[in-house]
Specification:
Blueprint: H1 6-12, E1 13-14, E2 26-28, H2 35-50, E3 53-57, H3 63-77, H4 81-86, H5 88-91, E4 94-98, E5 103-115, E6 118-121, H6 148-174, H7 182-189, E7 195-202, E8 215-222, E9 228-233, E10 239-242, E11 250-252, E12 260-264, H8 266-271, E13 281-285, E14 291-298, E15 305-306, E16 324-325, H9 326-333, H10 348-359
Parallel strand pairs: 2-3
Antiparallel strand pairs: 1-8, 3-12, 4-5, 5-6, 5-7, 7-14, 8-13, 9-12, 9-14, 10-11, 10-13, 15-16
Helix pairs in contact: 2-6, 3-6, 6-7
This protein binds 2-oxoglutaric acid and fe (ii) ion (FE2).
Amino acid sequence: MVVLAKGELEQIALPAARPPAADVRSVDLSAPAGPAREAAARALVAACEEHGFFRVTGHGVPVELARAAEAAAAGFFARPQGEKEEEAPTLGYGSKSIGGNGDLGWVEYLLLGVTPAGAVPVASASSSTLPCAAVAGGYSSSSAPTGPLRDLLDEYTVAVRRMACAVLELMAEGLGLGAGAGALARLVTRDDSDCMLRVNHYPPRPDQLGLGAPNLTGFGAHTDPQVISVLRSNGTSGLEIALPGAGGAWASVPPDRDAFFVNVGDTLQVLTNGRFRSVRHRVVVNSERSRVSMVFFGGPPPGERLAPLPQLLGDGRRSRYREFTWTEFKASGCRTRLGEDRLSRFEIASSKIRESLADEGMAQ
Ligand SMILES: O=C(O)CCC(=O)C(=O)O
Ligand SMILES: [Fe+2]
């Protein structure tokens, strides 16, 4: 259950309009080597350039495993509130608060850091998949006993991480990275990679709002900071992506229980020197049905130096971003609200402009 005070409910109310369906491209990860795989790699790159978002079929994650993990999570969310809160230390349970800076949503969640030993809870107080220094050093193993839900989520995470790696390998082929092609996938497969699993539960809109009442923000508009995020849901609508172009109109993602969806994250936008688009997205609660989503966030190791890949700079093309580490990005993002643009402070152009304004004594 998500409990919000009256003022809080107003804060997350949205107009009832429903955006048009997004035209989401599909990428078949199982395409055989040769022309079919080359076409899949091209489709993937085009989708990352245009929307920063695509659907993955032929992904190799057993559907039974995904459904079993989802059903176990749904069973957990159906338990009494007190019992769920007791599981904060073992499962990273939290509700309504997203990040540590006052963002609210009609959502409850589990948040687990991925370590070589399996998934471990991320402390609720600072829990966020957004950059935050509190988790920049990695996750300590929990001594709390694991249970069937944790075991299923562990198994699921291993399978989805493998798929994320396959996606990044296909991406590297599509980008023509050549000899350095393994570098992208390695970012999320190292033992110290900063990966996370987040299971979100959006209960149906509360009855007391009545008919004709506004929609609610489940998860406010944001970009994901990591390299890629890999998401599946129980087939309930609600996820929306911002379309390219001025204004960034919203489009709703048609639900699909068997496919996965991939978001380009901020880090991948930097690695591709802005060629790929870190997609803005949000979840709107407008349904009679609960939405359960499971999102794997593929993040780099803390000390990883992030800058555009040299192969993607091209002749004489300049880097749009200054180099920074993942730890630095997390520390700087820690103070931001959910919807803020966390990359702008790493853009070379804007920092150059700030420097010249400072030289002229015009900056504050
Ligand atoms: O729950 C969803 O469908 C998306 C959630 C999301 O964007 C996130 O956890 O970063
Ligand atoms: Fe997200």
